[in-house]
Amino acid sequence: MVTGVMKSGEIINKAPVVTGLVNYEQAGKEFSWEAVKKELFLPDNPAKKANIAYEAIDKHAQSWRKNKVALYWEGPDGTRQKYTFLELKNLSDKCANMLRSIGVKKGDRVFIFLPRLPELYISIIAIAKLGAIAGPMFSAFGPDAVRDRLQNSEAKVLITTQELKERVDTVLWELPKLERIVLVDYRKEYELEEKDVCYATLMKDASDKFEAVGLELEDPLYILYTSGTTGKSKGITHVHYDMISYYITTKWVLDLRDEDIYWCTADPGWVTGTVYGLWGPWLNGVSSYIYDGRFDAAKWYEIIQTYKITVWYTAPTALRMLMKAGDDLIKKYDLTSLRYICSVGEPLNPEVIRWGVKVYQLPIHDTWWQTETGAIMIANYPCLPIKPGSMGKPFPGTKAAIIDGKGNELPAGQHGLLALQPGWPSMLRAVWGDEKRFREYFSINGWYATGDTAYKDEDGYFWFVGRADDVINTSGHRVGPFEVESALLEHRAVAEAGVIGKPDVERGEIIKAFVVLREGFAISKALEEEIKVFIKHRLAAHAYPREIEFCGNLPKTRSGKIMRRLLKARDLGLPTGDISTLED
Ligand code: PRX
């Protein structure tokens, strides 16, 4: 509950809290991950052998929560389903047996290319039960993005739909390691191809008794691919031990309690949807709502009203779009069930927080983390005042710092690199198949370097400044310029391409491409459109350049590297800085 909004040196104070994280300072002093482990695991589980699926689902299915709804699901056509913890246990047991029947073993990579269907969630649990490694992929990905992930991970099985499989058909010949394709929506009129199997038929024959495989806590759980400045996207690999972080951050940052109905709007193809869409709430035995539909302001408010959502985890772009949809729309709905709102993925503008206080009577709590950190690392907590525009304070037991290029900590107020001291449970364990890129994260004197720049104020609050590299953040989606440039070069008309993030009021940044055409191609609106559609279809709907500028040449270093920094400075009319390495 908001108790007051001070405009000067703006602070949003809140009433004292009595559950969850009650006292931030004290929790920090007393914190130990061992204690969290003890709290999460049943006393008779020594945690030598464990499985996140047991802790998140099976344990509750054997407790008083067995008939509690774990998953409320709604499809784009309004179809509604719900699953109790016991039902999810039985279905994921069946699914684990089904996957075992087609040869999936511990350590195998099983990739999932599905809309947010219940089968997506059931498969993720089943894969964990088997000790196999899940690779959730966003359903808007194009053939190249899917191929790169399946190729790099050497995935053995792909779970998808008939419609999405069509998108993969063109690249199947490049995936010799892929043995089986499980179709969840298979209908008789389709002819199954060589590798195809039908989810429903196999599920029908599978037993619903499966004992989650006892794993070492360091056994891998999932791989999510994310972009850097150079090269293809990196397979960020997480392990079962992550659950310690998921459990306690969900409890203390998202403030989830048994009586909550929680809605995380992210897709499991992004880390937020995997960690806080399913594992975090279920480790805490909380009911999670999933909507498999597109953004629509009225629909979103209707969801909150209908399901009486109490805790909502969403993103700044969505909040900005809701703000744009207008306050009159809000008056049509009863949103009084909401008690706590959090945001992630991009800078959360102070005006959005002020607006939240006005229209929802609730402050929005920013949280900062990354695919690599596996869990929330810096946040605004229920028990602390909010400084609008700040990401908040490090999670208890976590050391975050602002450092220079040598790893020296910088004093309050000074801009520098945002770094974390390694040692939290959900830190990435590998970049799949690429030890060198994994080690790069720790190359500044042993710190984990986040790639972000930020500063800390006198009160220990962290403020986001930007990326230290060229990575683009568009609507909270991380996009590597190199990947877009590579895809652009595959278009027949493109000779050279340079890609930058351009500030945008709604999306944070949009992707802008500077393109040099090949001989024989003329600049036209039609060609521009063709290139946009080409990228949308190959890479992903969110990764296409909304703006294309045709130019005669691109600024390059003498070694031939495109100077994106210079493209950006020129585009925004900013000082161009040091251009001594420029080609001519
Ligand atoms: O630049 C930061 C931005 O998103 C990056 C991480 O992206 P990704 O791995 O896709 O994970 C996003 C969701 C966990 C960060 O390096 N970012 C994330 N949260 C915030 C943010 N930027 C500003 N404020 C945030 N709260």
From TrEMBL:
Statement: the UniProt record of this protein carries the keyword Nucleotide-binding: yes
Domain of life: Bacteria
Domain AMP-binding enzyme C-terminal: 483-561
GO BP annotations listed: acetyl-CoA biosynthetic process
Molecular-function annotations in GO: acetate-CoA ligase activity; ATP binding
Domain AMP-dependent synthetase/ligase residues, every copy: 59-418
One Pfam entry name: AMP-binding_C
Enzyme Commission identifier(s): 6.2.1.1
Gene Ontology CC entries for this record: cytosol
Alphabetized SUPFAM superfamilies for the sequence: Acetyl-CoA synthetase-like
EC top class, as a word: ligase
Keywords: Acetylation, ATP-binding, Ligase, Nucleotide-binding
CDD domains named in the record: MACS_like_4
InterPro entries: AMP-bd_C (IPR025110), AMP-bd_C_sf (IPR045851), AMP-binding_CS (IPR020845), AMP-dep_synth/lig_dom (IPR000873), ANL_N_sf (IPR042099)
Record has ATP-binding as a keyword: yes
Protein family: Belongs to the ATP-dependent AMP-binding enzyme family.
Name of this chain's protein: acetate--CoA ligase
